[in-house]
Automatic annotation (TrEMBL):
Catalytic function, reaction form: (R)-pantoate + beta-alanine + ATP = (R)-pantothenate + AMP + diphosphate + H(+)
Any one GO molecular-function label of the UniProt entry: pantoate-beta-alanine ligase activity
Family: Belongs to the pantothenate synthetase family.
Signal sequence coordinates: none
Gene name of this polypeptide: panC
Gene Ontology CC terms, in alphabetical order: cytosol
Name of the protein in its database record: Pantothenate synthetase
Pathway terms, separated by semicolons: Cofactor biosynthesis; (R)-pantothenate biosynthesis; (R)-pantothenate from (R)-pantoate and beta-alanine: step 1/1
Further information: The reaction proceeds by a bi uni uni bi ping pong mechanism.
Main location, first listed in the record: cytoplasm
NCBIfam families listed in its UniProt record: cyt_tran_rel, panC
Keyword Ion transport carried by entry: no
Amino acid sequence: MTIILRDKAALSAWRSAVPSNQRVGFVPTMGALHQGHVSLMQQAREAADIVIVSIFVNPLQFGPNEDLSRYPRPIEADIAKLEAAGIDALFLPSVEDMYPQGASTMVVENLVSGPLCGAMRPGHFNGVTTVVLKLFNLVQPHLAIFGQKDAQQCAVIERMVRDLDVPVEIRRGPIVREADGLALSSRNVYLAPEDRAAAPLIHQSLLAVEVAYRAGETDAQALAAIGMGILAQSPRIAPQYWDVRDPESLGAITRVGARGALLAVAAHLGTTRLIDNMLIGGD
């Protein structure tokens, strides 16, 4: 049975009772759990003795015109999924508990967070790094699992952990997709039927660029143009970016070299913003 810890005091008491020889795995989430989250929990279960999941819709990572108020919060369904997955504990704090009145400290990463979603959503990654570091300090996990679908988030957190000597091993879980290729996301429930029908073009654009790369095209601008061309097949898709980036620093590149590249795309379908990515080349 999953133990529900509703505040930091309860979490501290629970964590203190964990035997020192037990390896703790952690999966931070914002809830509205789907099979992608479950796959991260399964990965944590394989690598740890005890697995704890957090559900916290973090206001610091939402901009003023974003979907904080309507972000899905099906907590009873989420708890049922955690029970079915055999999760040991759920940390379910309130905003007031996580950010007491007068809290004024932010954690800022200044390189990896800059391009792609960082350019589109100013301040977003400051909210991510702040809440993740707080959660790491509270949970004290040995390892934490994040989904590759949020590739830039993974890169930012990996850089933060490295730069600040945070004693947590970071692992990435692979993207889980629908049968038609759409990456699983809590936001997919917002898609109107016509938008849902067009959404697989996002993944198809990544696949088309991978094919072009395997055929010998390495020019980053040319590859991005191929991806944008696939998205242009549907007037329902409004791209924010389609880019080819260094897989670690996320810096701009002109050609795909020995390190490979991250293909990254973000687009609006109606009012819903979707992201996806793929790694190509490299060792």
